[in-house]
Amino acid sequence: MLTQHLKIVFIVILTSFITTNHYAQTDSTSYVKDEKIYIIETVDGNVFMGTIISQDAKEVLVLTKDRGEISIPKYQVKSIKELEEGQINSKGEYVPNEVFATRYFITTNALPLEKGENYMLLNWFGPEVHWGVAKNFGLGLMTTWVGFPIVGTAKYSVKLDDNASFGIGILAGSGTWIIPGLYGALPFGVLTLGNRRANINFSGGYGYIGFDGQGGGAALMSVAGMAKIGKKLSLVVDSFIVPAVGSIGSGGGLIMPGLRYQIEPKSAFQYGFAMLVVDQELLPFPMPMLGWFKKF
Question: What phi and psi values does residue 97 have, to the nearest 5 degrees?
């Protein structure tokens, strides 16, 4: 009889342990959905890195390393992406993509502007505006502060793989009210190796300028690149090269190294200097390369 009672007590204890353990596991599983690290960007430009504890139609609960648990209203979430390789530096800090990675000082690359990704750039010599009008397709307009010339641009990009993109585009413009008979065009192709944190770009095209029925052209090339060297700082190098072919003689070009600083999530300031290459000599350009980027 005593043995029978012991068996019953043992079964009750064992059943209670199994049930408790089961509910504990179920609760833990529902609380921590996975151990992957995500990057969550909000509509106001803030970025959070951590594991997603839970999410529903109203909010996303994130466990971050430095700020603990953070509840983000779902209507404020712009995107949720799994952390990519290379987005963590040696200190364990998140290194975001370069916001204006599709542009250097003068030239562009094959990284596409996403639909709705619009920005303006105010250079010391004039303004420009660019719109992401469709997937992989963008339009732009550039001029100087006096409205001469006015140049329109279009670019279509194709992603070849995770670290290579190809694009084709054209720049076309006129002399407007200052020189009405002046016009020009530059169709080009671009190959970009890398991503929005570090890349190198090769581009080439043929530029043609005409005036009153006469004109001429030349091949144009560029090698450019950028690399994030901090959470808000990027190294930018650009160039504009006229090869030594035909009547061009020894050719020439423009080399532009500089830095870009991310002021806030939607704006950046860029500073650099230029050097002219004339007859195989390197000459300083008298004006710095200053620009202010702003997303809208």
Answer: -65, 155
